[in-house]
Structures are given as C-alpha cells and as structure tokens.
C-alpha cells in the first residue's frame, strides 16, 4: 500500500533504484534506456559524478537560507553564468523551482512591468494553440493544450490562442517555407489589432514545441517576424524554453539559433537535469530597471526560490555542458538520431513526419501518409507504443495532442546529451519494435 497521490501506485510501476549514464535500473535489475530523459529532463544522464559531488559539497556547507534574508554563492554564480550566456540584453535572473513557476513569474512580471511604466491597461496574453506552459492556473491558461485545459476551463483567465508554427500540418501546397512562417507569424498582428494593442502585454511561445506535439520547431524567420510585431506594438515577447532550452537543441538557448533576443526566457528541466528541482526566469535589464526605479520590488516569491542545493546542481550541469563541449555533441548526435530515425521510419506508411533540432526529436504517426489523417484516438496508439517500448527497456515520451480538432500521435525523443552511437541504434531499434507491435 502506498500513500503517494499520483498517477499510479507501488505495484503498478517498477521501482527505480539506480541510474547509470543513459540507463535507469529498476529493483529487478532491468535496465531502461532513457530515450526521453523522462520528460526532457535528464540531459546529463543518471548518476553524474560531478553533480553528485557538487551536491555533497553544498550540503556540507549550507542547504537552504531563505532569500528574504540571505543570498548564496551558488545562486549568485548561477545567475552570473546564465546571464553571460544568454541572448543580448538579458541580464537578470529569478530562480524558482520548476517550469510552471517560471512561467507564472513571467506573466506576473509582465503585468507588474506595465503597471510600473504607466500602462495599466495592458493585461492580455496571446499564446498559441499548440503549446504547453505548465499546470498551475496562470500557466495552464496560457497554454493551448486542449486536453490539459478542458476540465479547468472555468478557472482559467481568458487568453487568445493563435495558430502554431507547425509546418507539417500548416503549410499549404505550393507555399514556400518563408511565406508560411510569415503568414502564421502575422496572425499575431491580426490578433493584437483585434484586441487593441494597448490592452496586450505579452506573447508567449515555445521556440520548439515539446509536450503538445513532439519537438516541432518554428520555421526559419518565424520568430524574427514575431519579434518585429511585438516591438511594433510595445508587447513583451516571452519564450518558454522550459523543455527546449539548456542545450537541448544544440544551443544553450534555443532562440539563439533563430537569431533573436526575447524580453524574457523561462528555463527549467535541463537546468537541474533531474538532480534538483529548479527553474529560472531570465529577464531583459529594462524590465528589472523599471521595477527598480518604481516600486523597487517584484511582488512575487516562493519559499524555495534561489535554493542553494538546486543552484549548486545547476552550476555543475553548466560546467559539464561547457567543459565537455556538450552543445557541439548535441548537434552531432542529434543529426545522427535524425538520420537513424529517417532510415528506420522514413518510408513507413504510418509515419508522417520526423522533425526537431539537436537531441530533441519527434516522430508523428498517421493513419494515412497522403491525407495525413491521424489514427482513431480509440486505438490508443500512443499508450501502446509507450508500453511496448517500456517492456522492451526503452523510456520514450509519447503523446496525443489535439490541434484544431486534429488529434495527433507523436513520440518525443530527448535522450541525454552523452548518448553514444550504439545507444542511438538501440533507441531506434527498440522504438521500431514498439511501433510495429502497436500498429
Ligand atoms: N513549459 C514547458 C514548455 C513545458 O514543457 C513544461 C513541462 O513539461 C512546463 C512549462 C511546466 O514545467 P514544470 O512541469 O516543471 O512545472
């Protein structure tokens, strides 16, 4: 009998007892290749020696000192390192405990910023239908994932959702990629004009969409146009890199590949790499300065923000990424993973799209490749793939998002940055077996 309130209880799931690089090991000794880092979390794999040592060392000094009274070396050091590596103009960091907290903080900070600069009428958020920004009420309202929102809809603040940038499903026949990117980006301007620009405070988007549809990157040029539109109308651009940030795409921040600098960035997951729960909101100096010159205080906070142990883990994660040149490795291993997926599934009659950036890849399954019709949800293809893969010793992250009424079956792959070539082959071969068994 267990008292954990969750999706499952002891007896229904194996008990994880150890980690070994890209593998997790259960109580029976069975090894699982962690093909998705849980939910794109374990970017260094399991049982990393440097992170373990950093945690021991910090624990011997001080584990926690409340940020209302103290700062700590690891928190200060982490903030310095993150801002040094961040896109231009980002020079302040707000440390929290996870992704939803980072998104909540971003939304509240946007609101307070406009209050402080004398634009109190700005309160609306625009986001995209194909998105997930977290499960707390503000973050849930921002996200466009219909399944996650449905039963809580009456509790959610009204948010506008425009089209995603989802080339596989959205680009029309004969339309160039550039024209497609511009068309969907311009929907933001249409929505701003419909709402009245003076009432809009922020646009929120994931540069590479994760949990809703399996590693869907914005096409080249899309985010540049989004940046222009936000600037033109005085609206803050908040990029949610909780899943795609921290090197997952081969850049420390995914938007660096798109060549833009947002007003705020949220990160989490890979920041603590699963060793500690930690998230961060990174902010342009102008936002901090407005508040510093005004009320002097961001009216927000959580007990565990700036936690010394969490920051110590994140510093060790950053050191691993820097000293082992893991961003370059993510790019090369990511290309190999894409090539291996294409070799295995490229001609598959039920695989419509294989996409992503770096070690953040998605495979989309369809009933019919020509029409792109999805499978009947009653078939529960996702759940079957997940189970078959798990039985075979592979952790992958399958999901079935609904975009504009079209339900898709996808598998998200986000293996540790240290994945070896042979493990890429193992991943693809186990996934292939799981898919064939499920179809
Ligand atoms: N934002 C994005 C893009 C996410 O993928 C997630 C989680 O999957 C969140 C926010 C929420 O993060 P957390 O589960 O740490 O609260």
- Total tally of structural domains: 2
- Going by CATH, the architecture of the largest domain would be 3-Layer(aba) Sandwich
Give me the count of strands. 19
* Widest beta sheet: strand line-up: 4-12-11-10-7-5-6
What is the average of the pLDDT values?
Answer: 95
Sheet-strand content, in percent, reads: 15-25%
Report the radius of gyration as a whole number of Å: 21 Å
* Fold-level CATH name of the largest domain: Aspartate Aminotransferase, domain 2
Just give the CATH class of the largest domain.
Answer: Alpha Beta
Mind telling me the CATH superfamily name of the largest domain? Type I PLP-dependent aspartate aminotransferase-like (Major domain)
Summarize the main sheet: 7 strands, mixed
Distance separating the two termini? 35 Å
Task: Classify the helix fraction into a percent range.
Answer: 25-40%
The count of helical stretches stands at 15
Ligands in the model, by name, code or SMILES, are: pyridoxal-5'-phosphate
Molecular shape: globular
Coarse structural class: alpha/beta
Give the uncertain stretches in residue-range form. none
Characterization of the model:
The chain contains 15 helices and 19 strands. The chain has 439 residues and is of the alpha/beta class. The chain folds into 2 domains: 147 residues, Aspartate Aminotransferase, domain 1 (Alpha-Beta Complex); 271 residues, Aspartate Aminotransferase, domain 2 (3-Layer(aba) Sandwich), CATH 3.40.640.10. Helix 4 crosses helix 11. It binds pyridoxal-5'-phosphate.
């Amino acid at each position: 009998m267990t008292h954990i309130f969750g999706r499952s209880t002891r007896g229904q799931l194996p008990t994880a007892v150890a980690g070994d690089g890209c593998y997790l090991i259960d109580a029976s000794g069975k090894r699982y290749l962690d093909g998705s880092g849980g939910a794109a979390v374990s970017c260094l794999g399991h049982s990393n020696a440097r992170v373990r040592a950093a945690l021991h060392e910090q624990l011997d000094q001080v584990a926690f000192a409340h940020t209302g009274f103290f700062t700590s070396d690891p928190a200060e050091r982490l903030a310095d390192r993150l801002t040094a590596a961040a896109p231009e103009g980002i020079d302040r960091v707000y440390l929290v405990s996870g992704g939803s907290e980072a998104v909540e903080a971003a939304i509240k900070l946007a609101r307070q910023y406009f209050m402080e600069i004398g634009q109190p009428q700005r309160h609306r958020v625009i986001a995209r239908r194909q998105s997930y920004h977290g499960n707390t009420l503000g973050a849930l309202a921002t996200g466009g994932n219909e399944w996650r929102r449905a039963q809580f809809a009456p509790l959610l603040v009204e948010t506008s959702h425009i089209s995603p940038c989802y080339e596989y499903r959205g680009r029309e026949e004969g339309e160039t990629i550039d024209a497609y990117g511009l068309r969907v980006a311009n929907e933001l301007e249409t929505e701003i004009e419909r709402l009245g620009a003076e009432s809009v405070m922020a646009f929120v988007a994931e540069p590479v969409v994760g949990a809703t549809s399996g590693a869907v990157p914005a096409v080249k040029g899309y985010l540049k146009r989004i940046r222009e539109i936000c600037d033109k109308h005085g609206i803050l651009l908040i990029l949610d890199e909780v899943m795609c940030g921290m090197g997952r795409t081969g850049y420390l921040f995914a938007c660096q590949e798109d060549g833009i600098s947002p007003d705020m960035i949220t990160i989490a997951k890979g920041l603590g790499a699963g060793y500690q729960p930690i998230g961060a909101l990174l902010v342009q100096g102008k936002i901090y300065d407005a508040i510093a010159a005004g009320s002097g205080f961001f009216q927000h906070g959580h007990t565990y923000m700036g936690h010394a142990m969490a920051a110590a883990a994140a510093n060790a994660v950053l050191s691993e990424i820097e000293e082992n040149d893991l961003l370059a490795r993510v790019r090369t291993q990511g290309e190999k993973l894409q090539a291996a997926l294409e070799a295995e599934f490229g001609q598959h009659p039920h695989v419509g799209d294989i996409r992503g950036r770096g070690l953040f890849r998605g495979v989309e399954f369809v009933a019919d490749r020509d029409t792109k019709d999805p499978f009947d949800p009653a078939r529960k293809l996702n759940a079957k793939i997940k189970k078959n893969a798990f039985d075979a010793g592979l952790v992958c992250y399958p999901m079935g998002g609904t975009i504009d009424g079209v339900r898709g079956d996808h598998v998200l792959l986000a293996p540790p940055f240290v994945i070896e070539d042979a493990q890429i082959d193992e991943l693809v071969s186990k996934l292939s077996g799981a898919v064939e068994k499920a179809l």
